Each structure stands twice: as C-alpha cells, then as structure tokens.
Amino acid sequence: MAHDTTLSDAHAEHEHHELPTVFGFWVYLMTDCIIFGSLFAVFAVLRNQFAGGPTGKELFEISGLALETALLLISSITYGFGMIAAHKGQIKSVQMWLAVTFLLGLGFVFLEVKEFAHMIADGAGPDRSAFLSAFFTLVSTHGLHVSCGLVWIIVMIIQLSGVSAINERMMNKLTMLSLFWHFLDIVWICVFTYVYLASMI
Amino acid sequence: MSNDHSAAHGGSSHGSATSYIIGFVLAVILTAAAFFVVMGHSLSPSATLTAITVLAAVQVVVHLIFFLHMNTTSEHAWDNKVFLFTLGFVMILIVGTLFIMDNTAAHMMSR
C-alpha cells in the first residue's frame, strides 16, 4: 500500500517537475560547489602561512578587483537578457547577448591572467608560500571554469546560427549554461570577499 | 511545435527583464557596500569581517533568487533538497577543517 501511495504521489508531482537533464546539471553544479568548498577550506587554513613572502595586503589591488567583479556581474545580467530573448524565440538577439556575455567574460579572464603574470614575474608565484599555493589553486580553478564557460558560449552561438527555431533541447542547453554562468558569479562573490577583501582588512 | 512546448514549460521560472534588473541593482549595491566597508577602515577588523560576511551571504541569496530562479514551488523541490544537502555538507567541510587545523596548530604550538 505504502508503495502504491509513493508511486501515485510521484506521478501526481511529475507534471510540475523540470526536465531531468536540467536537474542532473544542477546536481553537477552542487558537486562543483563541494570542490570549491574544499578549496576555500584549504585557503582558510593556509591564508596566513606566508613563509616570509608577500602577504595578500601587499599583493592585491582593489581597483583591479573592482573591475574584474564589475565585468562578471554585468555579464550575468547580459546572459539573463539572452535567456529572455531565447524564451521569446529571437535567435539573433540571443546570439547578440551571448556575444556580449562572451566579451565581458573574456575581459575577466584577461585581467585575471594579467594579474597572475604580474605576481609570478614579481616572485610571488604559486611556489613562493603556502598562502600563494592556496590562492593560485582556488582562484585559477574559478578562472578555468569561466574559460570553459566561454568555450561553451561560442559553441552555443555556432549551434544557434544553424537553426530556425529554438527547440526544447536547445532551450535546455541555454538553461544549463545559464545556471553554470550564474553559479560562477556566486563563487566569485565568495572569492572577492574571503580571498581579496578579507586580506585587505 | 516543440518551440511552443518549451515556451510553455519554462514559463513560470525563467525570470523577466524587471526581475533581472532588480537582482542586478541589488548585487551592485551589496558589492559596492562590501568594497566601501573594507576601503573605509572605519570598523574594527573583526567587525569589518562580519560586515562583509553578511553582505556576501545576502548577495548569494539575491543571486540564487533573481539569477538562478530558485523558489519553493514543487517544480524546484528536488533542486532545493540537493542544494540544502550541499550547503550542510560544505559547512561541515569548512568549519570542521578550520576546527581541526586550529586545534592541531594549537597543540603543535606551530602558531
């Protein structure tokens, strides 16, 4: 009897569920969240282990951080506008917003790589201290995710140029990329708060 | 045909231009506040850390609601369960790690 109830309940709820692919992608994002959680835990433990090397306060610049944060935040809303256009079926508009999002994300990655290059050139590379090892591992893992998102955006722009209507499958892909992109923004909130700002206090 | 279906399916939870703009404005205000609290140096270090922690937590919630469209409808019930599990998992991971490593450091007198 109990089994029957569960089945019929599941069936009744089924119509309100979102698609399994999107739920599966959400589960992937949660596992990604655990990876970032581990890296934040490592950073929290090693954040003061400078080994006589430079501290975060000496290394980080607030203007560069503000610019990176602004680019990522603006890219979030431009992707949002892309999703709205997608739900209206305006393919050209979706491609335009995806391209804008791509450029903003590319700017973010460019600034981050430039920052890393400066630090390494100044002798503050990942091999200098435990603090810097943890810093480079955490921040570059986020940067790698953003770079993968950029590749995904290009793939979506190309795929969209070959269709005349946005079908359900295409909509799923755009929705999952949307979740991915906004999730990275959430990780960045924790990065700029606990890695950068907390080091500048 | 399939186009109509997807439009109908996502109709309830994909957000509108207004909700995206509200989320964006809130995120900008919260980010700017965190930067100003740190740059202003008007609070004590521990108060500054508390302030930016609260601002970050609020901003994460803003992003979840306005950008990832999380809500309490039955459509999202499983998303929310997995999310809460992950939240608990990550909290235990981070707080547990800090607790153990601080204890170790204290007993080894390495700090």
Walk me through what this model shows.
The complex is a heterodimer of chains A (201) and B (111). Chain A has 201 residues and is an all-alpha fold. In chain A, 82% of the residues lie in helices and 0% in strands. Chain A contains seven helices and no strands. Chain A has helices spanning 2-14, 20-46, 56-59, 62-87, 91-121, 130-160, 168-200. In chain A, helix 2 runs antiparallel to helix 6 (130-160), helix 4 packs antiparallel against helix 5 (91-121) and helix 5 runs antiparallel to helix 6 (130-160). Chain B folds into two domains: 13-69; 73-110. Helix content of chain B is 77%, strand content 0%. Chain B has helices spanning 2-9, 17-40, 45-66, 77-108. In chain B, helix 2 (17-40) runs antiparallel to helix 3. The longest helix of chain B has 32 residues, at 77-108. Mean pLDDT of chain B is 87; it is low at 1-12. Classes of the chains: A mainly alpha (201), B mainly alpha (111). Chains A and B meet through helix 2, helix 4 and helix 7 of A and helix 1, helix 2, helix 3 and helix 4 of B. Chain B: Belongs to the cytochrome c oxidase bacterial subunit 4 family. Chain B: InterPro entries: Cyt_c_oxidase_su4_prok, Cyt_o_ubiqinol_oxidase_su4, Cytochrome_c_oxidase_bac_sub4. Chain B: It is found in: Cell membrane. Chain B: It comes from Acetobacter aceti.
